[in-house]
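The passage that follows is intended for readers who have already worked through the single-chain material. We present the inputs for a multi-component assembly, then the predicted structure in tokenized form, and finally a short commentary. You are encouraged to pause after the input and sketch how you expect the pieces to fit together before reading on.
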Amino acid sequence: MTRYIIRRLVQAIPMMFLVSIVLFVLVHVTPGGPLTGLAGQRRIRPEKAAQLKRQFGLDQPITVQYLVWLVGNDWMKVDADGDGIKESYGTRTGILRGDFGISFKTRNPALVEITRRLPNTIYLMSITLLVVAIVAIPIGIISAIKQYSFFDIFVTTASFMGQAIPEFWLGLILILVFFAWLNNPITGEPLFPPGGMKTLGADFSLWDRVHHLILPVTMGMVGWVAWYSRFLRSSMLDVIHQDYIRTARAKGVAERTVQFKHALKNAAIPLVTILALDLPYIFSGSLYVEILFSWPGMGRLYYNSAVGRDYPILLAILIISAGLMILSNLLADIAYGILDPRIRYE
Amino acid sequence: MNANLEIGQDNLTESGVASIVRPQEGMMVALWRRFRRHPGAMGGMIVLSLILLISILAQFSPYDPEKSNIEGRFQAPSMAHPFGTDSLGRDLLTRVLYGGRISIAVGLMVVVITLIIGVPVGAVAGHFGGWVDNVLMRITDAVLAFPPLLVLIMLSAVVRDLDLSFIENNNVVVIAVVIGILGWMTVARLVRATYLTIREVDFVTAAHSMGASTLRIMVVEILPNAIGPIIVESTLEVAWAIMTESGLSFLGFGIMPPTPSWGNLLSEAQGYMTLYPWLAIFPGLMIFFTIISINYIGDGLRDAFDPHKVIGRVK
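Having made your guess, compare it with the prediction:
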């Protein structure tokens, strides 16, 4: 197992390089590259554009640009003022050494901007995922055990609907119903706040936090619950029809034990894998939820950076997300190996 | 065929095995027979056909989808305006239907693009194997590693800033291409899987020995075997593409107003929806009904194509 993990980690390195190349090509394949939007909405004069290009090293061949992005430019002379003469060594250290560039907008390092927003996103997303698991797992189990029952048909239809509801529209409807239409009968205030993490200026209170969480979590969880419960239902159904379940029943094991000990344990294995593959979303957050509910997290940072064409932030979030995705793939495989003794890694 | 029928009738009189033996029928007939039994899929077909039909008939709406009429703004739904009017007094139903044309067109174009990229990639990877397969599949994995919505937003931002004469700001094709670039991976994997399993089968070896060219074997002999999974996946991909386009347009990175699309109608509705809720309700319902219909159709197709149930002649 240890050897397998080490081998997979080593294989992840070229994969990361490939991911970084794909990302870099996607951004730079366009004629203007990241500079096109640099000056905001204004058009830049050609000579100014050429100067900026030299300053940001965008006049270099794309291979050199990629290298600089990866390992920095403190080993080569660069044209810092854009006058066409390379006079000093660069100051960038490259993403391999943790330099994800400077935000065009705030002039802070991209990593600083990210770590500032990250806790808020982790807070929202981990609670959302937890609620998803608590809701989806029982639903999936019951609808598989009672296949074709009224409950099962209801759940199957509901999960089809849950996957077809556009997340952003669901958010709009939630705000409409629970903020605009329904009022708290005692205070006369809207039932739920339309956004934010807490009441500004108020002291910390657990109820206030929960109150602000309910709508965003509901919005974020619907699609996920639909997908997870459908997934668990079908993997549970696969297992229930296996021979060893029949054997267990035949030798007189109680039905409940068959369902929970023999069936669920095996049906849950694929669920753990897809759960592992969704872990990167705890980092990147849900864009729609954070925008609609003014949640100061990663999704909104990404959206605002996209509107402002703040490419260093965009690239930083994307490359970190992709790295996490590769790691979670590895994690999913390892989890599979631990949970399912039939899988042997050589 | 007649022989089959007779055997079937013989069996019917002697045992219950008869149902297994069927007169041979064409693949399409068999597919349709199985598809028809799926109530969700049939419902989906009907709803989707209705949506398509009224979108096409939008032409005959008495209202202009883009011309504003300030006096008539924010009218609640009525006989004259079944979905009400928007902030510029435009008939919302007309705009929703025109938006539907755009959204559905983007969905179909995306599928064409994903097929153009995905089928050759999967076919080449699966057929040749070895390092070619390795390189192509690692690239596929690399694209899959990114959160698709985030990459789409960035690509759309990059494309929007380009000053290219042939790209209009609202070019539907450009949006479709951008979404298609992020959508071909599943198709590629499916096609590859078919090639991996089929390339060693006897009829392929036979084609080889008869001197068929590699291209002929790939396209004429093997590709038809992948049709089932490709059709199912393409159907679901239309739904994915419509949802993605709506999301992008909602965020302001897709189709831009005044051209309507379901996503940007919702985006416009955001500012007024507490007072004029119909602006937010109807476009979303259209997306919902379209997506759920397509998903059910995809589900029905998957059951119809399921090889375990296939009886009759498979080419």
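Commentary: The longest strand of chain A covers residues 77-78. The mean pLDDT of chain A is 85. How closely did your sketch match?
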